[in-house]
Amino acid sequence: MTDLFSPITMGALSLPNRIAMAPMTRNRSPGGVPTALNAEYYAQRASAGLLIAEGTVPDPSGYGYMDIPGLHDARTQEGWRGVARAVKARGGHIFVQLMHMGRISHPDFLGGAQPVAPSALQAPGQVWTHAGQKDHGTPRALAAEEVAPLAATYGRAAALAVEAGLDGVEIHGANGYLISQFLASNTNRRTDEWGGSLEKRARFLLAATDAAIAAIGGGRVGVRLSPGSTFNDIHDEDPEATHAFAIAELAKRPIAYLHILDSRPGWDVAAQARRLFGGTLMLNGGFDRARADAAIASGAAEMVSFGTPFIANPDLPARLRADAPLAPADTATFYRGGAEGYTDYPPLAA
Prior knowledge:
By secondary structure, this protein is of the alpha/beta class. 32% of the residues lie in helices and 16% in strands.
């Protein structure tokens, strides 16, 4: 029976198991550059079939959290080269998630410039800056002639990733960041070719995906969506229709996988994705081994990603295989910086 520990060919990669580490922001790349500490963290977790590294900014206009990594120039690329080298030394495979934060930002992260977004609509809530918590900045709407070049930065970042030794990239179309802001009707009020109908609202997602495919080949490109999620004040007039269109369009492209965050009560998001997408489907959302094995055995998914359990359990695949207890994660150190709560969790055998 196919289960979590069955090998799989996914796009351009042959993976030893179907366990992925979900991307998680950890705020430990000062100046946007991954360090030796980041390399150690990912190398510790290299027994996953696929590591998907944290949200990483493909363009300087995309920063919005403290000390998150970028991938847009030689300096940031060199940091990722060290991460790739460390993971490969442990026999691992790693994609990096490309995340432009759009309006979920503040001028403090952008050299005083306004955040950019589909429309000039300020997000509610606050963001932590180096000077403390501040209201999200009021974004400016991207000019029509700026949108396509911004989508193209995902292709440039993808090329930098593979040149650095990473295996590929995941396009972050989830959780209320820039691509999600283009998709959702409440954050995209445009009336040009990048907004209005759901086909036009999905155009930025598809343009970014196509740019990455053109740069490195579809077998090294994944896409993450969070259908129905309201995180970061996303409210779509018809999320089922919006994501059905987006998934059907992605299914026409030779991507390595579609990564679905299934968190919408009353709507079987995973079933919708399975119906529309015939390629490698990766699910995320509170899975344990039993649920994950069942999803894979039934054909509901080919892979399952785990988030928080990987923080405190660097050897999570071994623990799942042994049905061993999982160590709890210290939430107080999730975003603190430094090695504590990052690289100091011991493996099961220690």
